[in-house]
Every structure is written in C-alpha cells, then in structure tokens.
Amino acid sequence: MSATIDGNEAVASVAYRLNEVCGIFPITPASPMAELADEWASQRRPNIWGNVPRVVEMQSEGGAAGALHGALQGGALSTTFTASQGLLLMIPNMYKIAGELTPTVFHIAARSLAAQALSIFGDHSDVMAVRQTGFAMLASSSVQEAQDLAAVAQAATLRSRVPFVHFFDGFRTSHELNTIELLSDEDLAATVPLELVRAHRQRAMSPEHPFIRGTSQNPDVYFQARETVNPYYERVPDLVAGALVQLGERTGRHYHLVDYTGHPKAERVMVVMGSGAETARETVAHLNQRGERVGVLTVRLYRPFPAAELLAALPATATRVAVMDRTKEPGSLGEPLFLDVLGALAEAQTHAERGPIPMVIGGRYGLSSKEFTPGMVAGVFEELGREHPRRRFTVGINDDVSGTSISYQSGLDIEAPTTVRAVFFGLGSDGTVGANKNTIKILGVEANLYAQGYFVYDSKKSGSQTISHLRFGPDPIRAPYLVSRASFVGCHHFELLERVDILGCAAPGATLLLNAPHPPDQVWDALARPIQAEILEKGLKLYVIDAGRIAREVGLGGRVNTVLQTCFFAISGVLEPERAIARIKAAITKSYGARGSKVVAANLQAVDQALAALALVELPAKVTSTAELPPPVPAGAPEFVQRVTAEMIAGRGDQLPVSALPVDGTWPSGTAAYEKRNVSDLVALWDPDLCIQCGNCSFVCPHSVIRSKYYPESALAGAPASFRSAPLSARGLPATTYTLQVYAEDCTGCALCVEVCPVTAPDDTERKAINLADREPLVTIERGNIAFFETLPYARRSRVDFGTVRGAQFLRPLFEFSGACAGCGETPYLKLLSQLFGDRATIANATGCSSIYGGNLPTTPWTVNSDGRGPAWSNSLFEDNAEFGLGLRLAADSHVDLARRLLSELREKLGGELVEAILSAPQRSESEFRSQRERVAELKRRLATLEAPAAVDLASVVDHLVRRSVWLVGGDGWAYDIGYGGLDHVLASGHDVNVLVLDTEVYSNTGGQMSKATPLGAVAKFAAAGKTVEKKDLALQAIAYGTVYVARVAMGADPQQTLQAFREAEAYDGPSLVIAYSHCIAHGIDMRQGLDQQYRAVASGYWPLVRYDPKLRAAGRNPFLLDSARPHLRLEEYSQRELRYSMLANSDPAEAERLAGLSQAAVKLRWDTYEEMATWPAQRFAADARRLH
Amino acid sequence: MELRTDYMGLQLRNPLVASASPLCHTVDGVRSLADAGVGAVVLHSLFEEELAEEAARQARLIEAGSESFPESLSYFPTSAGFGPRPYLDLLERAAAAVDIPVIGSLNGASPTGWTDYARAMQDSGAAAIELNISYLPGDPSISGRDAERRHLEILQLVEAEVTVPIAVKLNPYFSSIGEMAVELDRAGAGALVLFNRFLYPDIDSESLGVVSTVGLSNPREARLARTWIALLRGRVKAGLAATTGVEGPDDVARYLLAGADVVMTTSALLRHGPQHARVLLDGLAEWMARKGFSRLDDFRGRLAVPSGTDATAHARAGYVAALRAANASPHGPW
After folding, report:
1. Chain A partners of B72 at a C-beta cutoff of 8 Å?
2. Higher pLDDT, B260 or A925
3. Pick from B52, B78, B85: CB nearest A596
4. A1172 phi-psi bin (left φ>0, alpha ψ -120 to 50, beta other)
5. Is A1005 in the active site?
6. Within an 8 Å CB–CB cutoff, is residue A558 touching chain B?
C-alpha cells in the first residue's frame, strides 16, 4: 500500500508500532514524531503486539534519555525522537545504554547545533557529536528509506544488543512529503520476531533473579570490561546486512550497508550519507549518460564503520574520491566521514590489502539545510577531475575568506521531463501550504502518480511567507532539493511580486498564476518593469484571478487557498480538469466535513467561482512599465544593513560570501526598523479628537508601533499637514502638544489597541480613539508623519512618571517591530521591560518564542536609544538560561567591585568629591540614574587624562558604575520544565537577577506542547486527552525561600499592577521573579481578545495577581499582597472561550466535564489559600537571612 | 399523596419537570435534579446553527498561525472534529445516570439537521424530543402562514424519523395560538410546551450601546401560559406543559388547576438550587392535602375553560369577567 507522507510520520509509524515506551520532549524538527506517538497513544492505538505504548513527556531530552534508560533496564522496548541540542543532552545516558549493551533505537531528524547561532535546520552536526558513544548509526536518505531503515534498526538492535541512532535529514527528509510504499504490521512482525523481544525482557532487572548493574569499577578491571563488548560490535554489520536482506525479500526494496551506484569503472567517486546521497545518485546517472565515469557510495551504516564493505564497494578503478560531510569540525584534520574513509583506505593499503589508494579529498556541504543540488554534485566531480583538487573544500557557498569553496553550475537540470514541477508563493495565513498538502494527497493516491512536496517558511511568525515546492510524475521522485525550473508558478499575493524573486524559479514558457486585485485587462499595467521584462523574456503564460475577492465573497476571509488550488488544477493539466475538480470537491467535503456545513459550502462555492473567474492575460510584445522594484531597506539604512541585512531580506542570503558575515555571531541591534513588512491590510489609526491620552494602547501594543511624545506647540512648525496632534492633556505643561504616532508599515493589525481603548465616539459606539483602517492609502502619508515624528525628541526620562501607564507611554521602546504573532501576549511585557530599564539592561533569553522573535535573522527587534544605549541581548541555550543570566550578573558584580576599588585607589587623582558621589550614589530612581550617568561621564573625561595602569583598568570597567539590570527572560517550557532546576538554583542564590517568565502555559515555539505550566483540563500536544495534573505554582515555590521578590501579573487585567511589579522587581536587591500571563495563539483564541482573556483569567480567580516583597517582611509587615479582587466569574466563563479547553468536550465530553469540575474546585482552593496568606502576620513567612552589602 | 402523572406517554413520578438551564449542562447537574425529586429533565437545546458556527469558529482558531512557521506548523493535536458529540454524550450519560426520563431539545436549521439530530438524540437515550422551533422576531420576511407551516413541516419531518414522543415548544406570537395548537395536535404532537420566552436586548443609555439581558422569569409572567393552557385543555389530545414563572408550590398548583399535565421550571431552580424542587413538590403535596386532593386528576383542569365554547361556559369559569376586569383597571391597558 502506498501513501504520501513525510519522513517524520513514516518513521514514527514504525517506531511506535515496534515499541512499548516512548520518552519524548519537543524539539524541531523531530517534534512531529513525538506528537504523533502521543496522539496515537491517546487514541489507544496498539503496537504490533496489541499493546498501547506508553508515551511520556519529560522535562528535557536529558530526562527523556534517563527515563528511557530505566525503561530499557526494566525490559521494555523503548524509543525516543529528538535532534540537535536534545541529542546532546542525551549523551551521558547514551554511553550508559551502549555500555550496558542495551537495545534501543533513537530516531533523529538530524539538525544543526547551536554554535555562532542556533539553527533549526538540517545537517549532521548533532549525530556526528554522538558517534563516539557506542551507538550504532544508520543513515537514511529519503522518506521511503527512513521508514524502512527505522524497522531495520529495530531488528538489528535487538539482534546485536548494540543500541542504534537512526538518522535522516531534518526538514529535508523529516518534513518532505513523498509517495512511499508502507510497511504493514506483518512486515514489521517479520522483521522483529517476538523471540528477540523476549530475550530483551529476559535481560531486565528483576528481584526474581537479581543482579547488580551499574557498578563502580576501578583500575584493575574497568579497561578489560570496556573491551568485552567488541564481539558484539563486530557482529553488527552482518546483522544489519541480514535485516536489510530480509526487508528486501519482503518488499523488493534492496539496501546495503554501503551502496555503490554509477559507472562500474568509475574514476571519480563521491562518498556521502543522508539525503545528499539521493541527489548524488540521480546526478551520477545523469553525468554517466553524458559519457562521464563517475559513481557514488552511499553510506548507510556509519557506526560501526563498515570499512570492509566500503572498500569492497569502491570500484578498483577509482583514482579520486571526494568524501562529503554535512557537518563542521573546526580544527580537525577533516570531518568525520572523510577521516573514516581515509583511514579505511590507508589501513587497507598499509596492510597490503589493496594497492595504491585513490586521492581522497573532503568536502563540507549542506549545513543548516543549505541546498545540495545536482549542480553542486557535478561541481564536486569537476573538482575531483582537476589536476590538483582542493584537499578540503566547501560547496554551496562562496567562501571568499579561506577560499574553501568550489565553483559549480547552479542551473544543472537533471529531472525527467515527465515530472511536473510547481512552486507556490503564499502567506502563512492564506492556507497555501495546507492546500498544497491537500493537492499532494489528492494526486498521491492516483494510480501510477508519485508526488513530492517540500515547504519553505520565513523566519517571522506574523505575516510569514511560504514557498511550496511540488513535484508530480509517473516515477518515484528522488529530488531532495528545491524546484528551480518550475513549469507552474503560483503567486498567491500580488505584493509578493515586489518583495520576493518569484519569477526566478520559472522555466522558460512556464505558466504564472497571479492572484491580483486587478482585472485581466489592467493587471499588466500594475506590474513593475523588471517583472514585465522577465515575463516576456521567459515567454511565460500569465493567468490572473482575484482570489481575495472570491474568498471574501464566499465567506473564507483571507484564505485564498481553495480558489488558487482550483486554478492550479484547471491550468496545470496534472489531472484531466473535470476529474481534478471532482477530486478537489470530494477532498473539501472530506477534510472540512468535521468543521460544519458552512465551511464546506463556502469552499465548494469558492471552487465554482474560481473556475468562472480565472482568465488568461493577453500580453503585449514589450515592456510598458517604468516602475522599479522598491529596495528591501530604506536608502538611509546603515552600511551593514544595506550590504548584508538587505540581501537576506530580499531572499538573496544564499549568495552572501563568507566575508560578509560576522565571525563570532555578533550582529548589530535594531535592524527590524529597516524591514518594513506591511503584513496587515488593516492598521491602527489614531483619532486625536477622541483620545484621552491614557496610554493604554501604547502600553499593550505587542509590536511597539504606537509611540507617544509630548513637545512644545512650537515644534509643530514644519510638520506635514497630515501630522496628527492634540493639546497635551496634563496640568502644568501649557502650550504643549501630544502626538500618538502609528508606525503603519510595521503594524500587524492585531487590534489589541482598539480593544483596550476606553473611549467610544458619542455618535458611533463602534468607533474608538484608535481604530483599524485600510493600510494602503495611509502608507505614504504615515511615512511623512513618522519622519517628522522622529525629529521630535522623546521626553526626558527623568521627567516622565514611570509609575503610571499614562507616563510609561512616553518612554521609548527599545524592543520594536518583532516578527512575533500578531497580537502576541508576550511582547508587550518585553517592550515594557525595554522602556523601563532597556538602556542599562543585559538580557539572557532562553530558547523559545522570545529568542526567535527576539533574535531570528534577518532582522531583530532589540534596539538602541538616541545615545546608542540599549539592551544587550543574548541567547545561550534552552536549558541553561538562568545559569547563563546569573553568570552575566556575576561578571557585572565582579566588575563593579573592581571599578569601586580602583575608584577608591584613584580618589586623589580623580577628585574626592566626584569619587565619593559615585560610590555613594543611590541608583533606584530615573533621576538618580541620570545623575550617576553624568558623574560617570565626568569620570571618563578625567580618566582620559591619566595614564596610570589603574586608570586604564578602571576605564575598561567604568560603565559598570551605572547599575546594570540583569534580566533572565524565557517561557514556561524553560522556567517550569527544562530550566527549572537551574532557575530554582539561581533564585535560591540570592543574587540580584530579575526573572521574567512569559507564561503561555505551553511550549509555544515548537507548536504548543504541554509543559508543567499547562493548566488542568487543557488540551495540548502531548496532552491530547486533557492535562490531568494541576499547573505548578511557581510563585509559591519561590515565595517559600523568603529571599525572592515574586509577582504574578496579567497586563490585560491590571496594567498598573504589572508596571508596579516590574519596577519593584528591578529595584529589589536580590532575585526577583515575575510570572506574566501571556495569551497565545496556542490557546485557541481570537488574538484580538487576548487582553480580555487576561482579564477573565484574573476575574475568574484562575490567575490571581500577587506580589511578594521580602522587604515588607523585614519591616514587620505581611509581604504577601493579593492584588486582584475576589473571583466574580465562573472559571468556564474564562476557559470555555479557549479552544484548548473547549476541544476536549468534542473528543471526550465526560472527561471534559470531570476536569472542568476539578479545575473550578482547584481555582477556589488556591484562592482560599492565597486569601488566607494575605492575612498572615509577617512571621508566618520565611525570613530573608542574606548578608546584604 | 399520589403525584404520578402521564406526559405524552411517559410515566413521570410527579408533574415537575426541570427545563433547560445550566443545571442540565452536566451529568452531575442532571443527577442533582433527579435526586431533588423532579419528574423529568429537559436538556438545553442543541442548536444546529450554533453548532455550525462553532465548528467554523473552531476551525478558524485551529488554522490561525498554522503552516506559517517551520517550528510550529500547528498548535493543537489533531482535532477530533466539532459537532453534536458533546451534547449527545451528555444525553447518553445523563439518561443512564438517572431513572427519570431525560428529554432532548432540538433547534434545527436545515431539514437534515432536524432529522439527523433527532434520530441521534433518540439513539442516545432521549425519552422524548422537544422541538424548540423558535424564530427570532424581527424578520419581516417571514409571513405568519409560513411560520405556522414551518412548525407543522418540522414536526412531520421529525415524526417520520423517530419513535419517541415529540413535544413542540411554542412562542406566544401566533395570530391564533389556538389554531396553531390544534394543527400541531392533529399533526401528532405528543405535547405542547407553552411558552418559549425570548430574552430581549436592552439599551444602555450610559454606554450608548445595546446590551443583552438574561432575566429569570417571575410568577407574573405565568399568566399568559396559564390562560392558554386553560383555553386548550380538553381541546387538544396533546399533553400540555407549562413553562415560565414557577417560583413556589402555589404556581405549580395553579398551572395544574388550569390543566397542565406537567409544570416546568428553570428560574426557581437556578435561583434557589436544585433542592428547590423538593420545596415545590412538598408544597404541592401539602396544598393538596389541605384542599383534600389525593391525586392530581382530582383537580387538574378544574379551572380550565370548559370545552363547550358557548359564552355562558366562559363566563361561568370566570375568565371573561376576569379579562374584562383586568383590562378596565386604572393601570391599563387603555
């Protein structure tokens, strides 16, 4: 039976059916395997032996490995799915598991490791980092192979007792949809006989026949004991080969440990693993047809390294060998596979087992999912053919620094003409990817038709662009690289034509389907000159449809997917059109059936209207437009932004040479301001006449696009006529004007500002003092307004009332225009942090949403003020953020100590009065900081005149004399789960760090998996049946120490309390913990109502607002302050508005009812506890016993 | 005291029926009503249109943000689908949990909606089905005859689909309620439930907005239904269920005197809790004892308008005089 599925599903299906325990933790790109396993378990789907596997989410991959080790020692067949840093966290257990000869398979969607930067994309850095653990390693190069070798690995591990890592390329294989032949339960049962399972159980720990395992060994025996396993490893190759033969006999699909493909007398041979091997095999066939003599060795078993098989497979005629590694090992002689191949050859030669060995060169390719194309393969062979090929090289990049890169022909096309290739450019929100997946499913079940789909997404969560690469053909599709010469190109948004190189992938004569708001006879005139020129040059056929209008008319909003999918089938000829339309309609009825008749009807209507409205455009013979494409960034952007960032924004980052990039991962702040993304058709528009200048809209704006300034009336001279202003509504500042400026091109149209605005027009209750309006007519006007607005100075910080929401609006945000989801519940807190403390803040950011919208290139939101000061931001890892942040604090403290000591030593030279003022300066209020900054500036001037070593030394740390604000930021996945041990330790350390937990109650960044912050009764991935354990009360745990300032806040419920908590936390000389309710797209809410949900969370008692201030305890007062009023909503009035709660009622109504009752009871219990605590005397709370200096 | 009664063929232990309210949203709630002694429970209505809208809304929420970012191509486990399952499951579990009849209530929006969901309710253990055929007032395109015809058509559609008895819940806005009742009776309605209350929105003069209001009924509102029950008693074979305005035992007694087979209550149970059912039943029994009645039939319909339609009979029952007197009062109407 065949199906079109992705690599993750192909592997998970086998792993799930062949195991009894799955230990899981989310990490891209392996998460979908764990999610599928969890869902299947919650549906009570059995493995091939009739039992439902136990799937358990752990607090980290380290935890998953530990649980797995235990399960294996307990005799259960156990597996896990992971990648990258996750695999690194498993290393200690991997040594144990291997050392104890314990059979298991870890399935790895291989991914880059975080080095100069994190990358979620695919290469072999992670698996190469575990090659020394004693695990056998099996590499798959396609979706089909990943499924098949998953089964082979399981058979081989049970037969050999050596544990296996089975890996395949992250994204390229894990996320590629491809038509494959499925392995049935019977196939699996034949591959993994029950006696092997029983033998595994026999080796388990049992008090019925006890033994000791995990001893501590000494110099006398450890070494010998380590050598005992050798025979087991020696048997592995044969056992894997046997399992491969058995699989081949059953399925007709034959694999070997090392497969040679190519000319039998090849002179030049490439050795490669993973999806690159598939490309290499296809390219080799093409090159040999052209008369070359080349070949490729695909390595499947990598550990134990099959030297004999490799040598046997390598044609004796080979004189040149290029070994390709998809990883980098700086400082090594070469990358791992290269060294292994070279070692095998050298050993054979030195032992006279073969004659002269070929010249071997080593190349790196494909890091972080960099494309590896037929052109690159051919380029490697060309390099091999040179008289003096480079010993080490890279392919796919332009290394103009070390000169490692080889050249290649990028346009080499080896694909069969019978393969239809199509590329679709869309937005995440329009459903393009979903429709294309649907198309693949539709075509994938056609007899003798094979399909492939691969999807590329950009780095933003709002307004993100998607590119779908689809192939269809009569033969299996073996092309794990992007479509570069498409016969069909769909541009699903007209604006994309100006931002992305859409026509670059169109083959000459291809069809271009354009969704445009212009009628067929006018669309040509709306195209810019370069677009017109390329259409004519390539002889493209242009079809146009106003899919947006049709989608709106039939009630599908912005989801143009069905309309455009219909057009594709109508034009492309992949299927006979009538048959195709019938299939689309059937697919709509099936896939939308569960969503109600309205949705089905709207989509069916969209199909009919699409067919009626699709039009072929008659093209003129020559270019008529004079309009050029807009530059990616404004002309005034800094040189680096123009040279590097702009290229990345334009999608040309692949062409940037090595020399263009920073050597140590250090990038300039504040580049988001140069990327005007215009992601929303509707943007905020201020009404100065209605506005009461409360500052609420600015306070909650997740994207920092609403800015307020007040300034003398006279400053309005020279303002554009369109510039909006109103007299400042404040006493004591006569003749002062107020402006609230919306950065229209950065606005995401989330409407939180409109929702929070307290004013309505007397004549129109729908109109507020800030409203959404069409962006298009505003863009040019607002550009002028913003340019003028930016000439007005921000209010002096020392004159702004930090204590009120109204005052805070005048503080410049140093976090702006992030790519977070429209209406994000986290970013308003970060913006506030940046406004209050940004000019002296150092931020340690745990991996997660906030590190992605905070640090994902090409542009980043943390920025600087007019003095050039701003948050210093870094992301270390997911698990270590608290420790990382503490380190930043310790460094700062150490340098403060140094600065103070040197200052005292240099007192006479620097002036006693200044030194004393600096040393004794209080630094809590903004005016105190301003004074200290002035003193430090004076100090620097005086230091500049001194040459004493102590003065030079002091100058290097002098900035620390302005108190630094160290923030540890992260989500609940970090704070409650993977980083909890570290966070707990840092909180207990007593050091002055400020922790901000952006609590979305799930792992948002990886797609909404359960954390220990997930509430009772909510559905999440890994808790598909509803969570049955209460959310951890992190606040109470921290309060127990007595030394930690703790606050639980919800901006949408009480912004003033949020503001107060942030300021108190920062001012507190010790650890502070602020837990911030962050509504999230993963809650299943209309994000526009995010703030209202925050209010309801508080009003129902689910999220009581509290502050705990140890200073009050020291003053003899109750330190526990319950800031929110008694609950006056039932929990369901909050919870049932969220899909995460309400969807359980569909899948398991009785359980939903049970959990809802328990949740309401839990809320009441917690409230009662808090209320009682709020009445306790100070002595009932732990004392702060720290020795404060 | 014998309180047992028949309601469209269902044998109830007493004539007090708990009608749709948040109390019936959970099995525990239904159980508490049964424990408090009610004779039957009517669940809240399954609204086909609401289900469709909710399904579409949930689909939108699931799709929001999906297939946009490589690390989070979705945010929820694969959906179990959206539909009537929670309702039917509640019905099934409630019916299994109590030994009194549990009646499903249905508000369809399409012919297949009425029939499919009615059958599903029967399959899930509904003892009867109450058709909640409510049109929102305010649509001037629906003629009176169309509205009447719709009621009959829906009843016939559902009758063809299920074997359990069917009650029709009416609103009081027909030009001739009597004719409508008789037509429904002829078409085979097992019972008529009088009346559906519309919850009218209000205007907030401060916020200058329209606000929705949820008002519990009070005994003054019972007179409309009581009058029509009195008028229909004996004129239709269908059972008569009184709903609206039951606060105390006396309200129950008065409905029964007018001729109701069963008396439904929502507001009083919401105000005072499910145990208030016991207060109503004990009060009814106490009143019966005081009045010398030992069975419901001793007094049910005693104050109904006699089925002979001559003016003398009306006058004798006091209705005509009472109507005249009420309308001549200084408090209006004028």
Report:
1. 461, 1004-1008, 1082
2. B260
3. B52
4. alpha
5. yes
6. no
**Chain A interface, mutation test: which of B30, B48, B60, B71, most A Cβ atoms within 10 Å?**
B71
Has A1154 been annotated as catalytic? Answer: no
CATH superfamily of A420-616: Pyruvate-ferredoxin oxidoreductase, PFOR, domain III (3.40.920.10)
Nearest to A457 among B51, B59, B70 (CB): B70
Domain span(s) for CATH 3.40.50.920 in chain A: 256-395
Q: Which of A1031, A1025, A1027 is nearest to A1000 (CA)?
A: A1031
ipTM given for this complex? 0.93
Q: Which residue of B has its CA nearest to A435?
A: B67
* A942 touches A914 (CB < 8 A): yes
Q: Where in chain A is the domain with CATH 3.30.70.20?
A: 679-811
Fold of A1000-1180: Rossmann fold (3.40.50)
Locate the DSSP E strands across A521-584. Answer: 541-545
Domain enclosing residue B268, as ranges:
5-303
Read off the pLDDT of residues A713-764 as tens digits, 9 standing for 90 and up.
999 999 999 999 999 998 888 899 999 999 999 999 999 999 999 999 988 8
Asked whether the beta carbons of A113 and A95 are under 8 A apart, the reply is no
For the cut 80, the answer to whether the pLDDT of residue B316 exceeds it is no
B179 & B312 share domain? no
**Per-window interface: A 1004-1033 vs B, CB < 8 A:** 1004-1008, 1019-1021, 1024
Do residues B145 and B214 share a domain?
yes
For strand A506-515 and strand A486-491, is the pairing parallel, antiparallel, or unpaired? parallel
Report the amino acid identity of residue B272: H
Q: Are residues B124 and B217 in the same domain?
A: yes
Interface test mutation site (partner A, options B27, B62, B67, B82, max chain A beta carbons within 10 A): B67
Q: Compute the Cα dihedral for A837, A839, A845, A851 and give only its sign.
A: positive
Q: Which chain A positions have a beta carbon within 8 Å of B73's beta carbon?
A: 32, 433, 1007
Q: Name the β-bridge partners of B204.
A: B209
Q: Give the residue carrying structure tokens 């017109």.
A: A532
Mutate to test the interface with A, among B68, B79, B124 (most CBs of A within 10 A): B68
**How far is C-alpha B20 from the chain's CA centre?**
7
Q: Tokens 């935890």 — which residue?
A: A63
On whether both B297 and B315 belong to a single domain, the answer is: no
Whether B158 and B89 map to the same domain: the answer is yes
CATH fold label, A2-250: Rossmann fold (3.40.50)
Using the Cβ of A171 and the Cβ atoms of chain B, whether some distance falls under 8 Å is answered with yes
pLDDT tens, residue by residue, A882-895: 999 999 999 999 99
Q: Is A111 on the interface with B (CB under 8 A)?
A: no
Q: Is B185 in the same domain as B314?
A: no
**Nearest C-alpha of chain B: how many angstroms from A1175?**
32
Hey, which residues does B42 pair with through a beta bridge? B103
A429 has pLDDT over 90: no
Do both B31 and B124 map to the same domain? yes
Among A19, A603, A1005, A1014, which one carries the catalytic annotation?
A: A1005
Instruction: Note if A671 is an active site residue.
Output: no
The hierarchical CATH code for the domain A256-395 is 3.40.50.920
* Intervals of CATH 3.40.50.970 along chain A: 2-250, 1000-1180
CB nearest A595 (choices: B27, B56, B64):
B56
Contact A338, A321 (CB under 8 A): no
Place of tokens 């087979």: B261
Indicate the angle between helix axes A275-289 and A374-385, nearest 10 degrees: 70
Give B27's contacts in chain A (Cβ within 8 Å).
1150, 1153
- CATH code where residue B132 lies: 3.20.20.70
CATH number listed for the domain at residues A679-811: 3.30.70.20
